[in-house]
Design goal:
The structure holds 2 protein chains of 2 kinds. Chain A is mainly alpha-helical. In chain A, about 75% of the residues lie in helices and about 0% in strands. Chain A has 6 helices and no strands. Chain A has helices spanning about 25-50, 50-60, 65-90, 90-120, 130-160, 170-195. In chain A, helix 1 runs antiparallel to helix 5 (about 130-160), helix 3 runs antiparallel to helix 4 and helix 3 packs antiparallel against helix 6. Chain B has helices spanning about 10-30, 35-55, 65-89. Chain B starts with 7 loop residues before the first helix and ends with a helix. The chains are: A mainly alpha, B mainly alpha. At the A-B interface, helix 1, helix 3 and helix 6 of A face helix 1, helix 2 and helix 3 of B.
Amino acid sequence: MIPAMTEATTSPAPNQPRLPGDLAIWIFILAEMLVFAVFFTAYAFARAKDPALFNECQMTLDRNAGAINTLLLVTGSWFVVLAVQAAHRDDKAVIARHVALGMLCGAGFLGVKVVEYAAKFGAGISLSTNTFYMFYISLTFFHFMHVILGMVILSVIWNQARKGAYGRENCHGLESGAAYWHMVDLLWIILFPLVYVMR
Amino acid sequence: MLKVLKNPAHRAWLVLIVATGITWYLGEIGAYGTAAIVAMLVIAFIKGRLVILDFMELRTAPWLWRILLEGWLIVVGGLILLAYWISLK
């Protein structure tokens, strides 16, 4: 275990290199990122076999929804960073509120995605329509599941934070959950341009 | 305003929002081909790096973790670029 920072400085500038949260969550994050790396690469190379089909079908995607969802995840991540920063300066009252705001952004993401899926499925598009839609649905849905898991983790953290569990001396759980939430954001940052915009 | 930007998280958020707007705009004007692809991958790399360093707080982490996550960005971006380059042939 790495001892918690004891400096009373507001800017977290530890002299020793320090990995936030638990090592286990970072191993898990790396494994998840490897799986997504395979998916992203598979999409790109499948596209190389039939760029005309991918370009045509990409035009049917709701780019505005994709961009709004990027803004939601980025802002959700930002709120969770502010919660971690509040824990580092022992400002306990702020932590739960910022985690809740992060969850609100996540809920917004899920809502936008449900509307987007409803429109696509309503138009008769399914996994078997063609290679592009197979990738579009499976990639975004796999990511969707990760947003849900991130929300579950944040809800546990929010509950703990409300009880005053996190502070300067005890922020490992908060930092671990935050790291996972940022991973969900990081993955969408690649997924959005790749599937919705690049042609 | 400038005081607010001293917090790396606020700075990163601002850049992430603007960068998302640029990618969206490139889509709106129908940008395509090598220049558009490279531009979008560079933007995605900058955004991903900000999330890794300022949101995940790996800027002050042991170098191994920075290499692993930033390396992931470079490898994934490189493979996507390779696939798109093949498709343009």
